[in-house]
Amino acid sequence: MSYPPISEQLDDPEGAREEGRRKIDWASGHMPILAALREEFEELRPFEGQRIAMAMHVEAKTAALTETLAAGGAEIAIAGCNPLSTHDDVSAALDANENITSYARRGVEGEEYYDAIEAVIDLRPTITVDDGGDLVFRIHEEHPDLVDGIIGGCEETTTGVHRLRAMDEDGALRYPVFAVNDTPMKRLFDNVHGTGESALANIALTTNLSFAGKTVVVAGYGDCGRGVAKKAAGQNARVIVTEVEPRRALEAHMEGYEVMPMREAAAKGDVFVTVTGNRDVITREHFEAMKDGALLANAGHFDVEVNLDELSDLAANVREVRDGVMEYETDDGRRLNVLAAGRLVNLAGPLALGHPVEVMDQSFGVQAVCVRELVAAHSGGLRDRLAERLRERLGRSDRLEAVGEDTYGPGLHEVPDALDREVATVKLAAEGIDIDALTDEQADYMDDWRHGT
Ligand code: RBV
After folding, report:
1. The pLDDT of residue 383
2. What's the pTM?
3. Whether residue 57 has its Cβ less than 6 Å from ligand 1
């Protein structure tokens, strides 16, 4: 039997839809980039005939992206990209759209998670939009026959891009995918500010405890770790950073944080936040050294950073002490508290809302223009109409003229910088911020290597 959409899984789909609609409307009302793109898509209908498969955190901002793509004429099927991050009411509201089928439900266990992804793949997509790479991976592993019909995909997050890069290096990635995560408009805002704010907000909401005066150990000083460390320091915590990369370790040191191995940090921390994208960052030897009452949270994409199997082995007692907080009591009477089952705390916690709306508007703005770009690369007519529209809207069209039919072959692709600039320009306009423009002389000067002293 095929896996049912959310509306067929809920007792009161009508009530859920109404509440989900309220949440989506609030988020959409604060997403000016998506609003501008939606207007363009409604007019040009660039996605007519396209089938888009999505696996993402199904909550209000993601719903706004999904509806924006549907407004451009796409038929869409969506599933979650984490067993705990779906908001069922939002999922139900999306499912009510005649061009969208949502299979996402919170709390799916084991195989059910992949059943929903399989249901999405049944759409026989022409485009995939992923957060973490499960969709691309599953299509390549289980449905290689679909690859020829796929014009391309977009990947939202660091972990997914990392996975796709490894696939690409092995020659295993068989269609083009844009590394949305790596753009300045995504990475420097979503990863830094988004993860920093939402991870700390959710730790605070889940525990009702303060950061002030505590020692927060941040494992991993990439873009996400940088954000978590900065915001924790901003809430009066002492911050310790652990790293494996010498330059990042040095950067954290120069930022004023203490840097040390996890072996030493384990005994000092009151709160631990893992943001490495790797597995086994906190393990048995660390649990053995931790203080009574330590809080452990993960903000990396997968739930592999805190080794819960080893913690369970150590624990004499395990009980849920608060919604979203599992207490592991060791033989020597220390209580270690794991938040959101070691899944990414900013989305999987009981009260989690994900990143703030503004940063997701930017990330999803990049997603939307990347989907548009994949389609435009296959259609000269659409490209011309988009170029005209862009000239009207922004007074330029540098991006589209550069795109040719064969621009994007199989493999991982950087997002063209002009697309990212387009998203930034729309956002600045929405904020009412005007900036300077280069004069012709300045542009010539920057391009001419002959100039010197
Ligand atoms: N993320 N999505 C949300 N929809 O509320 N919050 C964070 C949301 C994305 C973010 O872009 C990050 O790269 C990814 O989740 C990690 O899975």
Report:
1. 81
2. 0.95
3. yes
**pLDDT lower than 50: segments of the chain:** none
Helices (H), 235-319: 246-254, 262-268, 284-289, 308-314
CA distance 79 to 125: 13
Q: What is the pLDDT of residue 22?
A: 98
Cβ atoms of 163 and 181 within 8 Å: the answer is no
State which ligand 1 atom lies nearest to the alpha carbon of 82: 17
Cβ of 363 closer than 6 Å to ligand 1, yes or no, is yes
Q: Please, what are the domains in the chain? A: 6-182+371-430 (3.40.50.1480), 191-343 (3.40.50.720)
What does the pLDDT look like over 249-296, one tens digit per residue?
999 999 999 999 999 999 999 999 999 999 999 999 999 999 999 999
**128 CA distance to ligand 1 middle (Å):** 16
What was the pLDDT predicted at 194?
98
3-state secondary structure 86-146: CCHHHHHHHHCCCCEEECCCCCCCCHHHHHHHHHHHCCCCCEEEECCCHHHHHHHHHCHHH
**Nearest residue (CA) to ligand 1, atom 12:** 157
Pocket test for ligand 1, best of 30, 54, 57 (most atoms within 8 A of CB): 57
The Cα angle at residue 159 between residues 297 and 117, in degrees rounded to 5: 95
Structure tokens given for 143 = 């449905």
Burial (CB < 10 A; 0-12, 13-18, 19+), residue 377, is buried
**Do 193 and 219 touch, CB atoms closer than 8 A?**
no
pLDDT at position 398 is 63
Residue 195 CA, closest ligand 1 atom number: 7
Q: Give the tokens for residue 397.
A: 């069209």
Binding residues for NAD(+): 157-159, 191, 220-227, 243, 278, 299-301, 346, 355
